[in-house]
Design a protein that fits this description.
Number of strands: 0
Distance between the termini: 67 Å
Low-confidence stretches: none
Largest sheet: none
Mean pLDDT: 84
Helix content: 55-70%
Length: 85
């Protein structure tokens, strides 16, 4: 009898957890969609402002000056590994 009540309790908790996870997934999807809509509106409005006032547009970033020291390159460990003979 105790085993059946523990099983029923576990099933009830699993059902409640499933409902909570589904609700959170819906909220996350709504939040994600709102984020991308806001980002789209922000970009659209920023481009409209740039067209209206081109004098205040941010200048292009200056080109980085090449360093006088040689740059380091990535060497994968698989190229250093000894071949089996």
């Amino acid at each position: 009898m105790v085993l059946w009540s523990v099983t029923a309790l576990a099933l009830a908790l699993a059902a409640i957890a499933l409902l909570l996870v589904r609700r959170q997934a819906r909220r996350l999807e709504t939040l994600n969609q709102s984020y991308w809509e806001l980002r789209y509106d922000y970009t659209r409005l920023r481009s409209q402002v740039a067209r209206l006032d081109p004098g205040d547009a941010p200048a292009a970033a200056p080109e980085p000056v090449a360093a006088s020291t040689p740059s380091m390159t990535f060497v994968p460990l698989s190229s250093i590994r000894k071949k089996d003979s």
